[in-house]
Write a structure and sequence with these properties.
Helix content: 25-40%
Number of helices: 14
Strand order of the largest sheet: 2-8-7-6-5-3-4
Largest sheet: 7 strands, mixed
Number of strands: 12
Shape: globular
Order of helices and strands: EHHHEHEHEHEHEHEEHHHHEHEEEH
Strand content: 5-15%
Structural class: alpha/beta
Oligomer: single chain
Radius of gyration: 23 Å
Amino acid sequence: DLPLAPTDVMTDTKTSLSSELAPSTLTTDAELDKRAPPSFGHAMHKLFEFDPSYVNLNHGSYGSLPMPVRVACEKLSAHIEANPDRFIRIECIHHWNEARTRVAKLIGAETDECVLVDNTSHGIATVLRNFEWNEGDIIIGTTTTYGSVSRTIRYLADTPPRPQVSTFNLNFPASHAEILENWREHVRRVTSEGGDLKQTRKVVAILDAIVSNPGARLPWKEMVAICRDAGVWSVIDAAHSIGQEVDINLSEAKPDFWVSNCHKWLFAKRGCAVLYVPRRNHHVIKSSIPTPFTYHSPEDEHYNGPQNFVKLFEWTGTRDYVPLLSINAALDFRQWLGGEHKINEYTHNLAIAGGKHLASLLGTSVMDPDGELTFNMVNVELPIPGDIKYSDEINSLLINTLLVEWNMYAAHYYHNGKWWTRCSAQVWNEISDFEVLADALKDACEKVVKFAKQ
Protein backbone atom coordinates (compact mmCIF):
# COMPACT_ATOMS: atom_id res chain seq x y z
CA ASP A 1 0.00 0.00 0.00
CA LEU A 2 1.65 3.20 -1.19
CA PRO A 3 1.21 6.52 0.59
CA LEU A 4 -1.77 8.55 -0.63
CA ALA A 5 0.42 11.33 -1.99
CA PRO A 6 3.78 9.74 -2.86
CA THR A 7 5.40 12.97 -3.98
CA ASP A 8 4.78 14.52 -0.58
CA VAL A 9 5.51 11.63 1.75
CA MET A 10 9.19 11.16 2.62
CA THR A 11 10.09 14.15 0.45
CA ASP A 12 8.41 17.35 1.63
CA THR A 13 10.36 18.72 4.56
CA LYS A 14 7.99 21.70 4.74
CA THR A 15 4.84 19.67 5.38
CA SER A 16 2.23 21.60 7.36
CA LEU A 17 2.46 19.12 10.23
CA SER A 18 5.98 19.92 11.28
CA SER A 19 8.71 17.76 12.74
CA GLU A 20 7.78 19.05 16.15
CA LEU A 21 5.12 16.32 16.21
CA ALA A 22 7.77 13.65 15.70
CA PRO A 23 9.41 12.70 19.00
CA SER A 24 13.15 13.00 18.65
CA THR A 25 15.19 9.85 18.33
CA LEU A 26 18.13 11.75 19.70
CA THR A 27 17.55 11.33 23.42
CA THR A 28 18.21 7.68 24.05
CA ASP A 29 17.65 7.93 27.78
CA ALA A 30 16.28 10.88 29.70
CA GLU A 31 18.99 10.45 32.30
CA LEU A 32 21.86 9.73 29.92
CA ASP A 33 23.32 13.21 29.80
CA LYS A 34 22.97 13.64 33.54
CA ARG A 35 25.50 11.01 34.49
CA ALA A 36 29.04 10.23 33.44
CA PRO A 37 29.55 7.17 31.25
CA PRO A 38 31.34 4.12 32.69
CA SER A 39 35.06 3.80 32.14
CA PHE A 40 36.15 2.00 28.99
CA GLY A 41 36.69 -1.69 29.63
CA HIS A 42 34.53 -4.24 31.42
CA ALA A 43 32.55 -1.51 33.18
CA MET A 44 30.97 -0.92 29.76
CA HIS A 45 29.28 -4.34 29.84
CA LYS A 46 26.30 -2.85 31.66
CA LEU A 47 25.58 -0.78 28.54
CA PHE A 48 25.66 -3.70 26.10
CA GLU A 49 23.64 -6.45 27.79
CA PHE A 50 25.92 -9.32 26.82
CA ASP A 51 25.63 -12.74 28.39
CA PRO A 52 27.87 -12.23 31.48
CA SER A 53 30.06 -15.19 30.51
CA TYR A 54 30.40 -14.21 26.83
CA VAL A 55 33.71 -12.71 25.67
CA ASN A 56 33.07 -10.70 22.51
CA LEU A 57 36.11 -9.99 20.37
CA ASN A 58 34.17 -10.15 17.11
CA HIS A 59 32.24 -6.88 17.06
CA GLY A 60 33.36 -6.33 13.48
CA SER A 61 31.12 -9.02 11.97
CA TYR A 62 27.66 -7.91 13.07
CA GLY A 63 28.04 -4.98 15.42
CA SER A 64 26.70 -4.80 18.98
CA LEU A 65 23.74 -2.67 19.99
CA PRO A 66 24.17 -0.48 23.08
CA MET A 67 21.30 -0.64 25.55
CA PRO A 68 20.49 3.10 25.30
CA VAL A 69 20.24 2.80 21.51
CA ARG A 70 18.06 -0.30 21.84
CA VAL A 71 15.75 1.57 24.21
CA ALA A 72 15.53 4.48 21.78
CA CYS A 73 14.67 2.07 18.97
CA GLU A 74 11.94 0.42 21.04
CA LYS A 75 10.45 3.80 21.91
CA LEU A 76 10.45 4.81 18.26
CA SER A 77 8.88 1.48 17.26
CA ALA A 78 6.11 1.98 19.80
CA HIS A 79 5.52 5.49 18.50
CA ILE A 80 5.32 4.22 14.92
CA GLU A 81 2.83 1.51 15.81
CA ALA A 82 0.63 4.01 17.64
CA ASN A 83 -0.12 5.66 14.28
CA PRO A 84 1.73 4.09 11.31
CA ASP A 85 0.04 6.35 8.78
CA ARG A 86 1.06 9.56 10.49
CA PHE A 87 4.62 8.40 11.00
CA ILE A 88 5.17 7.11 7.47
CA ARG A 89 3.26 9.84 5.67
CA ILE A 90 4.41 12.84 7.70
CA GLU A 91 7.03 12.29 10.39
CA CYS A 92 9.52 9.81 8.98
CA ILE A 93 11.12 12.23 6.53
CA HIS A 94 12.25 14.51 9.37
CA HIS A 95 14.07 11.68 11.16
CA TRP A 96 15.47 10.51 7.83
CA ASN A 97 16.86 13.92 6.97
CA GLU A 98 18.25 14.39 10.47
CA ALA A 99 20.10 11.05 10.27
CA ARG A 100 21.47 11.86 6.80
CA THR A 101 22.58 15.32 7.93
CA ARG A 102 24.39 14.05 10.99
CA VAL A 103 26.11 11.14 9.30
CA ALA A 104 27.12 13.37 6.37
CA LYS A 105 28.81 15.77 8.76
CA LEU A 106 30.70 12.88 10.35
CA ILE A 107 32.12 11.68 7.03
CA GLY A 108 32.79 15.09 5.51
CA ALA A 109 30.04 15.10 2.89
CA GLU A 110 26.98 17.12 1.95
CA THR A 111 23.64 15.91 3.28
CA ASP A 112 22.17 15.36 -0.19
CA GLU A 113 25.15 13.28 -1.20
CA CYS A 114 24.15 10.68 1.40
CA VAL A 115 21.26 8.22 1.53
CA LEU A 116 20.54 5.31 3.87
CA VAL A 117 20.42 1.67 2.77
CA ASP A 118 20.24 -1.69 4.55
CA ASN A 119 23.91 -2.70 4.41
CA THR A 120 27.11 -2.17 2.45
CA SER A 121 26.51 -5.10 0.08
CA HIS A 122 23.14 -3.53 -0.81
CA GLY A 123 24.81 -0.18 -1.48
CA ILE A 124 27.61 -1.65 -3.61
CA ALA A 125 25.10 -3.68 -5.63
CA THR A 126 23.00 -0.56 -6.16
CA VAL A 127 25.99 1.31 -7.60
CA LEU A 128 27.26 -1.52 -9.80
CA ARG A 129 23.82 -2.32 -11.23
CA ASN A 130 23.27 1.32 -12.17
CA PHE A 131 26.28 1.45 -14.47
CA GLU A 132 25.36 1.01 -18.12
CA TRP A 133 27.78 -1.77 -19.02
CA ASN A 134 29.13 -2.16 -22.53
CA GLU A 135 31.24 -4.75 -24.26
CA GLY A 136 34.89 -4.27 -23.30
CA ASP A 137 34.19 -2.56 -19.95
CA ILE A 138 36.32 -3.78 -17.07
CA ILE A 139 35.51 -4.31 -13.38
CA ILE A 140 38.53 -4.49 -11.07
CA GLY A 141 38.16 -6.49 -7.87
CA THR A 142 40.77 -7.87 -5.51
CA THR A 143 41.63 -11.27 -4.08
CA THR A 144 40.32 -10.01 -0.72
CA THR A 145 37.06 -8.45 -1.96
CA TYR A 146 34.17 -9.34 0.36
CA GLY A 147 32.29 -12.47 -0.73
CA SER A 148 28.92 -11.00 -1.74
CA VAL A 149 30.62 -8.11 -3.55
CA SER A 150 32.94 -10.51 -5.37
CA ARG A 151 29.92 -12.59 -6.42
CA THR A 152 28.12 -9.44 -7.62
CA ILE A 153 31.11 -8.68 -9.84
CA ARG A 154 31.00 -12.24 -11.14
CA TYR A 155 27.25 -12.05 -11.78
CA LEU A 156 27.64 -8.88 -13.81
CA ALA A 157 30.42 -10.52 -15.83
CA ASP A 158 28.12 -13.49 -16.47
CA THR A 159 25.35 -11.22 -17.77
CA PRO A 160 25.38 -9.67 -21.27
CA PRO A 161 27.19 -7.57 -22.34
CA ARG A 162 29.58 -9.36 -19.95
CA PRO A 163 32.10 -6.78 -18.72
CA GLN A 164 35.52 -8.25 -18.12
CA VAL A 165 36.87 -8.90 -14.61
CA SER A 166 40.40 -7.95 -13.61
CA THR A 167 41.67 -9.15 -10.22
CA PHE A 168 44.25 -7.26 -8.20
CA ASN A 169 46.31 -9.57 -6.01
CA LEU A 170 46.50 -8.63 -2.33
CA ASN A 171 48.52 -10.85 -0.01
CA PHE A 172 49.18 -9.83 3.56
CA PRO A 173 51.36 -8.89 5.30
CA ALA A 174 52.18 -6.06 2.90
CA SER A 175 53.14 -2.45 3.46
CA HIS A 176 51.08 0.46 2.18
CA ALA A 177 54.02 1.43 -0.03
CA GLU A 178 54.05 -2.02 -1.64
CA ILE A 179 50.27 -1.99 -2.12
CA LEU A 180 50.34 1.43 -3.78
CA GLU A 181 53.23 0.53 -6.08
CA ASN A 182 51.46 -2.66 -7.19
CA TRP A 183 48.10 -0.90 -7.54
CA ARG A 184 49.56 1.85 -9.70
CA GLU A 185 51.09 -0.76 -11.99
CA HIS A 186 47.87 -2.81 -12.13
CA VAL A 187 45.80 0.23 -13.09
CA ARG A 188 48.39 1.25 -15.68
CA ARG A 189 48.33 -2.21 -17.26
CA VAL A 190 44.53 -2.48 -17.30
CA THR A 191 44.00 0.97 -18.79
CA SER A 192 46.73 0.60 -21.44
CA GLU A 193 45.38 -2.64 -22.89
CA GLY A 194 42.37 -3.08 -25.14
CA GLY A 195 43.25 -1.47 -28.44
CA ASP A 196 40.42 0.60 -29.93
CA LEU A 197 38.09 -0.11 -27.00
CA LYS A 198 40.24 1.70 -24.46
CA GLN A 199 39.05 5.07 -25.76
CA THR A 200 35.36 4.37 -25.06
CA ARG A 201 35.18 1.68 -22.40
CA LYS A 202 34.76 2.30 -18.70
CA VAL A 203 36.92 0.79 -15.97
CA VAL A 204 35.39 0.49 -12.50
CA ALA A 205 37.48 -0.47 -9.46
CA ILE A 206 35.92 -1.83 -6.27
CA LEU A 207 38.29 -1.26 -3.35
CA ASP A 208 38.07 -1.88 0.38
CA ALA A 209 38.80 0.89 2.82
CA ILE A 210 39.40 -1.79 5.45
CA VAL A 211 39.55 -5.37 4.25
CA SER A 212 37.18 -7.74 6.03
CA ASN A 213 39.59 -10.69 6.22
CA PRO A 214 42.34 -9.91 6.97
CA GLY A 215 41.08 -6.95 8.97
CA ALA A 216 43.62 -4.72 7.28
CA ARG A 217 43.47 -1.00 6.57
CA LEU A 218 44.23 -0.10 2.97
CA PRO A 219 45.66 3.23 1.72
CA TRP A 220 42.33 3.72 -0.03
CA LYS A 221 42.52 7.49 -0.38
CA GLU A 222 45.79 7.22 -2.29
CA MET A 223 44.35 4.34 -4.34
CA VAL A 224 41.37 6.54 -5.22
CA ALA A 225 43.75 9.27 -6.39
CA ILE A 226 45.51 6.75 -8.65
CA CYS A 227 42.13 5.78 -10.11
CA ARG A 228 41.17 9.40 -10.68
CA ASP A 229 44.42 10.17 -12.50
CA ALA A 230 43.86 7.14 -14.76
CA GLY A 231 40.20 7.85 -15.51
CA VAL A 232 39.03 4.83 -13.49
CA TRP A 233 35.80 4.91 -11.46
CA SER A 234 36.34 4.19 -7.75
CA VAL A 235 33.74 2.34 -5.66
CA ILE A 236 34.80 2.06 -2.03
CA ASP A 237 33.55 -0.79 0.16
CA ALA A 238 33.92 0.94 3.51
CA ALA A 239 31.84 -1.57 5.48
CA HIS A 240 34.12 -1.31 8.52
CA SER A 241 35.05 2.37 8.26
CA ILE A 242 32.49 4.63 9.91
CA GLY A 243 33.00 4.52 13.67
CA GLN A 244 36.48 2.98 13.28
CA GLU A 245 38.23 5.32 10.87
CA VAL A 246 38.24 8.93 12.10
CA ASP A 247 38.47 12.08 9.97
CA ILE A 248 37.29 10.34 6.80
CA ASN A 249 36.52 13.59 4.90
CA LEU A 250 35.01 12.30 1.66
CA SER A 251 34.85 15.77 0.14
CA GLU A 252 38.62 15.79 0.22
CA ALA A 253 39.25 12.12 -0.67
CA LYS A 254 36.81 12.32 -3.63
CA PRO A 255 35.88 8.67 -4.22
CA ASP A 256 33.24 8.22 -6.91
CA PHE A 257 31.08 6.09 -4.59
CA TRP A 258 31.52 5.06 -0.93
CA VAL A 259 29.38 2.81 1.30
CA SER A 260 29.76 2.06 5.02
CA ASN A 261 27.77 0.06 7.55
CA CYS A 262 26.48 2.06 10.50
CA HIS A 263 25.45 -1.04 12.45
CA LYS A 264 29.04 -2.18 12.89
CA TRP A 265 31.43 0.31 14.48
CA LEU A 266 28.97 3.21 14.79
CA PHE A 267 26.58 1.29 17.13
CA ALA A 268 23.39 1.75 15.09
CA LYS A 269 20.82 -1.04 14.93
CA ARG A 270 21.48 -3.66 12.25
CA GLY A 271 21.05 -3.39 9.33
CA CYS A 272 21.88 0.16 8.43
CA ALA A 273 24.41 1.76 6.06
CA VAL A 274 25.17 5.08 4.42
CA LEU A 275 25.68 5.34 0.65
CA TYR A 276 27.68 8.40 -0.47
CA VAL A 277 27.38 9.59 -4.05
CA PRO A 278 28.95 12.99 -4.79
CA ARG A 279 26.80 15.36 -6.81
CA ARG A 280 28.99 14.91 -9.88
CA ASN A 281 27.86 11.27 -10.03
CA HIS A 282 24.17 11.56 -9.19
CA HIS A 283 23.36 11.01 -12.86
CA VAL A 284 24.76 7.47 -12.65
CA ILE A 285 22.19 6.36 -10.06
CA LYS A 286 18.89 6.11 -11.91
CA SER A 287 17.20 3.66 -9.53
CA SER A 288 17.50 2.33 -6.03
CA ILE A 289 17.03 -1.37 -5.28
CA PRO A 290 14.16 -2.14 -5.40
CA THR A 291 13.06 0.38 -8.01
CA PRO A 292 10.78 2.95 -6.31
CA PHE A 293 7.47 4.31 -7.59
CA THR A 294 9.23 7.67 -7.95
CA TYR A 295 11.50 6.35 -10.73
CA HIS A 296 11.49 8.52 -13.88
CA SER A 297 11.52 6.63 -17.17
CA PRO A 298 12.54 8.29 -20.45
CA GLU A 299 9.36 6.71 -21.82
CA ASP A 300 7.13 8.59 -19.36
CA GLU A 301 4.72 10.97 -21.02
CA HIS A 302 6.01 14.02 -19.17
CA TYR A 303 9.61 12.92 -18.68
CA ASN A 304 11.87 15.84 -17.81
CA GLY A 305 15.01 14.05 -16.68
CA PRO A 306 16.07 11.45 -14.07
CA GLN A 307 14.61 11.49 -10.59
CA ASN A 308 16.42 13.37 -7.85
CA PHE A 309 19.06 11.10 -6.29
CA VAL A 310 17.83 11.41 -2.69
CA LYS A 311 14.16 10.89 -3.57
CA LEU A 312 14.99 7.54 -5.16
CA PHE A 313 15.88 6.16 -1.73
CA GLU A 314 13.28 7.77 0.52
CA TRP A 315 10.53 5.26 -0.19
CA THR A 316 11.32 1.88 -1.73
CA GLY A 317 8.36 0.06 -0.21
CA THR A 318 7.05 -0.81 3.23
CA ARG A 319 9.93 -1.45 5.60
CA ASP A 320 11.05 -1.00 9.18
CA TYR A 321 12.75 2.39 9.22
CA VAL A 322 13.91 2.08 12.84
CA PRO A 323 17.38 0.65 12.06
CA LEU A 324 18.11 3.45 9.58
CA LEU A 325 16.85 6.13 11.96
CA SER A 326 18.82 4.66 14.87
CA ILE A 327 21.85 6.54 13.53
CA ASN A 328 20.65 9.52 15.56
CA ALA A 329 20.60 7.60 18.83
CA ALA A 330 23.92 5.93 18.03
CA LEU A 331 25.63 9.26 17.42
CA ASP A 332 24.22 10.65 20.68
CA PHE A 333 25.54 7.61 22.52
CA ARG A 334 28.99 8.02 21.03
CA GLN A 335 29.07 11.70 21.93
CA TRP A 336 28.14 10.78 25.49
CA LEU A 337 31.07 8.33 25.59
CA GLY A 338 33.43 11.13 24.62
CA GLY A 339 33.31 11.26 20.83
CA GLU A 340 35.04 9.58 17.91
CA HIS A 341 38.65 10.36 18.79
CA LYS A 342 38.37 9.30 22.43
CA ILE A 343 36.60 6.05 21.56
CA ASN A 344 39.05 5.12 18.83
CA GLU A 345 42.12 6.05 20.83
CA TYR A 346 41.12 3.43 23.39
CA THR A 347 40.11 0.74 20.90
CA HIS A 348 43.13 1.23 18.64
CA ASN A 349 45.62 1.10 21.50
CA LEU A 350 43.91 -1.99 22.87
CA ALA A 351 43.99 -3.68 19.46
CA ILE A 352 47.74 -3.07 19.17
CA ALA A 353 48.52 -4.18 22.72
CA GLY A 354 46.05 -7.05 22.69
CA GLY A 355 47.34 -8.40 19.40
CA LYS A 356 50.92 -8.47 20.63
CA HIS A 357 49.88 -10.09 23.91
CA LEU A 358 47.83 -12.75 22.11
CA ALA A 359 50.67 -13.54 19.72
CA SER A 360 53.02 -13.94 22.68
CA LEU A 361 50.60 -16.33 24.42
CA LEU A 362 50.08 -18.36 21.24
CA GLY A 363 53.78 -18.38 20.32
CA THR A 364 53.04 -16.79 16.93
CA SER A 365 53.17 -13.26 15.53
CA VAL A 366 50.92 -10.37 14.55
CA MET A 367 50.41 -9.70 10.86
CA ASP A 368 51.20 -6.03 11.31
CA PRO A 369 54.05 -5.42 13.80
CA ASP A 370 54.29 -1.67 13.13
CA GLY A 371 50.52 -1.06 13.17
CA GLU A 372 50.28 0.41 9.68
CA LEU A 373 47.42 -1.92 8.72
CA THR A 374 45.57 -1.71 12.02
CA PHE A 375 42.73 0.48 13.21
CA ASN A 376 40.69 -1.52 15.75
CA MET A 377 40.96 -4.98 14.19
CA VAL A 378 44.20 -6.84 14.76
CA ASN A 379 45.29 -10.01 12.96
CA VAL A 380 47.29 -12.69 14.78
CA GLU A 381 48.65 -15.94 13.33
CA LEU A 382 47.14 -19.14 14.70
CA PRO A 383 49.23 -22.19 15.70
CA ILE A 384 47.85 -24.34 12.86
CA PRO A 385 50.29 -25.59 10.20
CA GLY A 386 49.78 -23.84 6.89
CA ASP A 387 49.51 -27.12 4.99
CA ILE A 388 46.16 -27.69 6.73
CA LYS A 389 43.88 -25.93 4.27
CA TYR A 390 40.45 -24.46 4.86
CA SER A 391 37.48 -26.83 4.81
CA ASP A 392 33.89 -26.59 5.99
CA GLU A 393 34.64 -29.24 8.62
CA ILE A 394 37.56 -27.30 10.06
CA ASN A 395 35.57 -24.08 9.97
CA SER A 396 32.72 -25.73 11.91
CA LEU A 397 35.17 -27.22 14.41
CA LEU A 398 36.67 -23.81 15.15
CA ILE A 399 33.26 -22.12 15.42
CA ASN A 400 31.78 -24.76 17.71
CA THR A 401 34.82 -24.92 19.96
CA LEU A 402 34.97 -21.17 20.42
CA LEU A 403 31.26 -20.37 20.62
CA VAL A 404 29.71 -23.49 22.16
CA GLU A 405 32.48 -24.74 24.43
CA TRP A 406 34.16 -21.45 25.36
CA ASN A 407 31.31 -18.94 24.80
CA MET A 408 33.57 -16.42 23.14
CA TYR A 409 34.52 -15.50 19.61
CA ALA A 410 37.03 -13.81 17.34
CA ALA A 411 36.96 -14.35 13.58
CA HIS A 412 39.28 -16.90 11.97
CA TYR A 413 40.36 -17.34 8.36
CA TYR A 414 43.01 -18.82 6.07
CA HIS A 415 45.10 -16.36 4.08
CA ASN A 416 48.39 -16.45 2.19
CA GLY A 417 49.28 -19.93 3.40
CA LYS A 418 48.56 -19.33 7.08
CA TRP A 419 45.70 -19.43 9.59
CA TRP A 420 44.81 -16.19 11.36
CA THR A 421 42.41 -14.73 13.87
CA ARG A 422 40.94 -11.24 13.52
CA CYS A 423 40.22 -9.62 16.88
CA SER A 424 37.90 -6.60 17.09
CA ALA A 425 38.79 -4.37 20.04
CA GLN A 426 35.83 -2.44 21.45
CA VAL A 427 35.09 -0.14 24.34
CA TRP A 428 33.99 -3.05 26.57
CA ASN A 429 37.18 -5.09 26.04
CA GLU A 430 40.26 -5.27 28.22
CA ILE A 431 43.62 -7.00 27.77
CA SER A 432 42.39 -9.94 29.86
CA ASP A 433 39.88 -10.78 27.11
CA PHE A 434 42.80 -11.61 24.85
CA GLU A 435 44.05 -14.04 27.51
CA VAL A 436 40.71 -15.86 27.52
CA LEU A 437 40.87 -15.92 23.74
CA ALA A 438 44.36 -17.41 23.85
CA ASP A 439 43.17 -20.36 25.96
CA ALA A 440 40.16 -20.92 23.71
CA LEU A 441 42.23 -20.72 20.52
CA LYS A 442 44.86 -23.13 21.84
CA ASP A 443 42.10 -25.65 22.50
CA ALA A 444 40.46 -25.05 19.12
CA CYS A 445 43.72 -25.20 17.18
CA GLU A 446 44.78 -28.44 18.89
CA LYS A 447 41.47 -29.98 17.83
CA VAL A 448 42.00 -28.82 14.25
CA VAL A 449 45.49 -30.34 14.09
CA LYS A 450 44.18 -33.59 15.58
CA PHE A 451 41.27 -33.66 13.11
CA ALA A 452 43.60 -33.05 10.16
CA LYS A 453 45.74 -36.06 11.10
CA GLN A 454 42.79 -38.45 11.04
